[in-house]
Amino acid sequence: MNIITISREFGSGGRELGKRLSDALNVPCYDDEIIEAVAEKHGLSKDYAAHMSEKDFRAIYPTTIGRRFSGFRYHMHPATNQSIQFAVAQQEVIRELAGRGDCVVVGRCADVILSDLNPFSLFVYASQESKLARCWSRAKEGEHYTDREIVQMMRRIDKECAAYREVLTDNDWGHMRSYNLCIDTSGKEIKKLVPGLAAYVKCWFGE
Amino acid sequence: MNIITISREFGSGGRELGKRLSDALNVPCYDDEIIEAVAEKHGLSKDYAAHMSEKDFRAIYPTTIGRRFSGFRYHMHPATNQSIQFAVAQQEVIRELAGRGDCVVVGRCADVILSDLNPFSLFVYASQESKLARCWSRAKEGEHYTDREIVQMMRRIDKECAAYREVLTDNDWGHMRSYNLCIDTSGKEIKKLVPGLAAYVKCWFGE
Predict the structure, then answer these.
(1) CA–CA distance, A52 with A197 (Å, rounded to integer)
(2) How many cross-chain Cβ pairs, A to B, lie less than 8 Å apart?
(3) For B124-153, how does the pLDDT look when each residue is reduced to its tens digit (9 = 90+)?
(4) Smallest CA–CA separation between A5 and chain B, in Å?
(5) In the structure, how many helices (H) and strands (E) does chain A have?
(6) Which residues does chain A have within 8 Å of residue B194's beta carbon, measured at their own beta carbons?
(7) For site-directed labelling of A120, which of A49, A74, B58, B67 has its Cα 20 to 30 A away?
(8) First to last CA, chain B
(9) Do B200 and A196 touch (CB under 8 A)?
(10) In b/e form, how buried is each residue of B74-109, taking b as 16+ CB within 10 angstroms?
(11) What is the mean pLDDT of chain B?
(12) Chain B partners of A200 at a C-beta cutoff of 8 Å?
């Protein structure tokens, strides 16, 4: 089974890259679909599921438990318990979706969660200047953030991704050695890189 | 001009990847050719040029000079002076060769030396297990190194690459952010990755 996972810095274009890569390879892309599937499976509203997914996982994860999920059921504040239950539900959904066949999974430490399927794991990064420009180009009308506010938001989100990964594995987030391919998108249009990337992925899987 | 530079961990297959990529793109590959050109230009024997190229640059570079080459001519031990003169000669040759047109340059911090030409800079890495296996598969008949000796050699050579880079730039050797693409070759045959990589390089240069 050819599973491609995409981790990315906020603003690097990794989400767009995942969608376009899945189109180029003609396989499904699971991104927000994961949240929707968790919501549907557990009878949650999509807004609540999205809110749970965006929480800073480290802040609510009791460090006394250790670095893995084992034994997470007992003696916890209800809010902590909910968040961990959500994370576990999300992992189950990722495994279910990936079990259906070849796909691209964006974010959520899918490379770690699906490691037994030997996914091709990508990390997407870019210069701060380029990430800022990408954020600006996608800002909704009426949004008035300063560059500083966007940089702070980037750092916060990247830090949360790193923290979630830290709970699951010893392979650090954003470190070359944790991935099979690391792509710099600085100053590049994602859509122009995708045909070459799709060709590389096919070579990786020996097609 | 489309210049591709390849930095690599010892044993990752970066040198083979450079040669095969240049063949796939139908452009010259400069690797040992750089040493030969320095030898020819400065009337040195090839063996002596190869020896100078392999010296630990950090050990002979006087730290009092600072992090750049400016002012390297004066008050030095002749051996130090020779090594720096060789490094400068090597840089000049790399610039001359790259000036001829599209090419692949392997090693020698060519991405830094040619930064004004906006090269596509690649870094090739692999797991230690995979690098060891690659080293063994290429060992000459009669060579009797232990795994420990090979690992020590890998570390020494990678350290020397990092040290040479440190003299030239603030962008660290082997750090994702110093390169445009970082490729994990663990357990892979280089020749099978090259067609996809060539396709990606063409996309990068907008072809």
Answers:
(1) 32
(2) 70
(3) 999 999 999 998 888 777 777 888 888 998
(4) 15
(5) 9, 5
(6) 203
(7) A49
(8) 12
(9) yes
(10) eebeeebbebbebbebbbebbeebbeeeebbbbbbb
(11) 85
(12) 193, 196-197, 199-200
pTM: 0.87
**Is A91 in contact with A113 (CB distance < 8 Å)?**
yes
A184: nearest CB among B180, B184, B206: B180
Cα–Cα nearest to B179, from B165, B198, B159: B165
How many angstroms separate the CA atoms of B104 and B120, rounded?
9
Interface contact B174-A179, CB threshold 8 A? no
Give the pLDDT mean for A130-156: 85
Q: Is the dihedral of CA A123, A116, A32, A144 positive or negative?
A: negative
Distances in Å between the Cα of A28 and the Cα atoms of A8, A14, A179 are 19, 16, 21
B181 chain-A contacts, CB cut-off 8 A: 181-184
Integer distance in angstroms from the first to the last C-alpha of chain A?
Answer: 12
Give the closest-approach CA distance of B82 to chain A in angstroms: 36
Minimal Cα distance from B128: which residue of A? A177
- Using DSSP bridges, classify how beta strands B103-106 and B29-30 pair: parallel, antiparallel or unpaired: parallel
Distance of CA A207 to the CA centre of its chain: 26
Q: Are strands A181-184 and B181-184 parallel, antiparallel or unpaired?
A: antiparallel
ipTM for the assembly = 0.86
CA distances from A65 to A61, A162, A174, B114 (A): 8, 18, 25, 51
* Look-up of token digits 């792509």: A183
Sheet holding A103-106, edge to edge: A29-30, A103-106, A3-8, A120-125, A181-184, B181-184, B120-125, B3-8, B103-106, B29-30
Q: How many residues does chain A have?
A: 207
**Which residues make Cβ contacts (< 8 Å) with residue B63, sequence separation at least 6?**
none
Inter-chain touch B196–A194, beta carbons under 8 Å: no
Under 8 Å between Cβ of B97 and B34: yes
Strand partners, A104: A4, A29
Residue A192 to residue A204: CA distance in whole angstroms: 20
**pLDDT > 60? residue B63:** no
pLDDT of residue A69: 47
